[in-house]
TrEMBL record:
Protein's name according to its UniProt entry: Carbon monoxide dehydrogenase
PANTHER family: BLL0334 PROTEIN
Cross-referenced SUPFAM superfamilies: Bet v1-like (SSF55961)
Pfam families (UniProt xref): COXG
Phylogenetic lineage: Bacteria, Pseudomonadati, Pseudomonadota, Alphaproteobacteria, Rhodobacterales
Top-rank taxon, per record: Bacteria
Native organism: Thalassovita mangrovi
Length: 149
């Protein structure tokens, strides 16, 4: 499964980049996020509850960031386990481009799922993933825009 999107955020690039590295902001914006622990500058651990169609599961996972292209670009990869519901792993490349007082955030993400979740059908999975991504970025854009310069 692949997702590609472009979002315009009403904040300068430095503020957007800082927010993408702020576990408190991310915890508030990730749908179903119960816990987000930063173990190092590049390693995070998350606990998220998600409902995909009839399957509801609590996922525990790890995310590793590659900030070598920062603050213009970075990538992340991670994997999570939802017990009997299944597992997921994926990665995303993110770029930030300043446009006046705004920032254009582009991402390209890939994910693979297994277990019960994989049996639900690709259309339902794709639709749910798009909704979750849209919800995250709407919350994220609002959170970043609300931060005082």
């Amino acid at each position: 499964m692949e997702l590609n999107e472009e979002i315009t955020i009403d904040a300068p690039k430095a503020r957007v980049y800082a927010a993408l590295n702020d576990p408190d902001i991310l915890r508030q914006c990730i749908p179903g996020c119960e816990e987000l622990i930063q173990h190092s500058d590049t390693e995070l651990e998350a606990k998220v509850v998600l409902k995909v169609g009839p399957v509801k599961a609590r996922f525990s996972g790890n995310v590793v960031l590659d900030k070598s292209g920062a603050p213009d670009a970075f990538s992340l990869s991670g994997q999570g386990n939802g017990g009997a519901a299944g597992h997921a792993k994926g990665s995303a490349d993110v770029t930030l481009e300043e446009s006046g007082e705004q920032t254009i955030l582009r991402y390209a993400a890939k994910a693979e799922i297994g277990g019960k979740l994989a049996q639900l059908g690709s259309r339902l999975i794709q639709s749910t993933a798009k909704k979750l991504a849209a919800k995250f970025f709407k919350s994220f854009a609002e959170a970043v825009s609300a931060v005082e310069a």
